[in-house]
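Input sequence (430 aa), recorded before submission:
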Amino acid sequence: MMLKQIDFRGKGSEWKDFMPASTEIDELPIEAVREIISEVRNLGDAALRNLTQKFDGIVLDDLVVSQKEVEKAYHSISKEFRDALNASAEAIVTYQETQLTEHTILDDNGLSIETFQKPVASAGCYVPGGLASYPSTVLMTALIAKVAGVERVVVTVPPAGGQGISIDTLAAAFVAKVDVIHPIGGAQAIAALAYGTESVQPVDVIVGPGNIYVSLAKQEVVGRVGVPASFAGPSEIMVIADSTAPAKFVAVDLAVQAEHGPGGKSWLVTTDENFAAEVADELENLVRNSSRGENIKSTFETGGYCALVDDLDSAVAIVDEVAPEHLQIMTTNAAEVAKKVSNAGAIFCGNWSPASLGDYLAGPSHVLPTAGTARFAGALTVRDFMRDIHVVTSSEKALNRLGPHIFNFAVTEGLESHADSIRLRGVRIE
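Predicted structure, token format:
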């Protein structure tokens, strides 16, 4: 069986004891990432060239892709793929515009609070490009930044195979109206976006999925820049399914995220042992015939599990413990099960809602929290590129009403000037 089986049935309150151990932080390449960041900070463009040659085997002449090359790429792709890019872009814009909030005003008896959403001035979008090209990620990051109103949107993509950035990715950048593209990947790209080099201007926010080096680098630069959902990759999926779901559908959906390569998670959670065996058989056939079979197998070897549970409530409990990036629910009552889930980046309900729908065309971003961070983070949205700024206006009457409370707080905390700011305005303190 390709998925390692964990039998949670009959375990009662002790079921957590049977969960597979997660990767410990000291097993991660933190020091290597810090060295890369330090090298970029100290050496700038020279470091980017050295590290790109070291990790990608490519000598970079230019660290910026020309707009002429980007436009040429768009006109070089097939009409079918241009149509797909534009359809995806339309869906993304339609959905993300619903997430924009016009300014709000609270008026409470003389105290007015007006709140505005303001976009950051610049954003950096990391787009993977090692094992495969991901034009969809350009749209799912850069285009969302544009909808938010970000003035300067920068994309970094690791060059691959001696050919630089794929024309498909460049074409997506044209559709998203990306301002600058750098052929740089890995932790060095994150460092350049955070601190700047001679050719890379620093940004205010960094988003986008990547491998463990990219994720750790994003964590290291938090505070220098904004980093929503610093862990966005490797990819994860859990599927809750019963025997009403076609085993072939379940198998291929488990493989969908696994084909991104090692380091991710792919879980089947079911109450039916016989159904699990059917899915296993389908997986064997699928992997055998897949051009990315080795990637799928490598994911299954480290993060592939089949969890047998007593009931759907137990399935939900396991999902909430793992907090997966993608959750598919393929049961007779999928919508009801979905309502019970607390921790998941995105949920796909029913046999006709594969996670690939969310990857490309549903509208919400496919940049989702991984590594358990769905406990406190969600999908990338326009809000990740914006800040709330509030304007507070008080009348004299309102300050006279609220002032004694402010005064007492200030006195309690020993902040004399805070207290005086109320007393010297003539507010009556009883």
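Checked by second reader. The radius of gyration is 25 Å.
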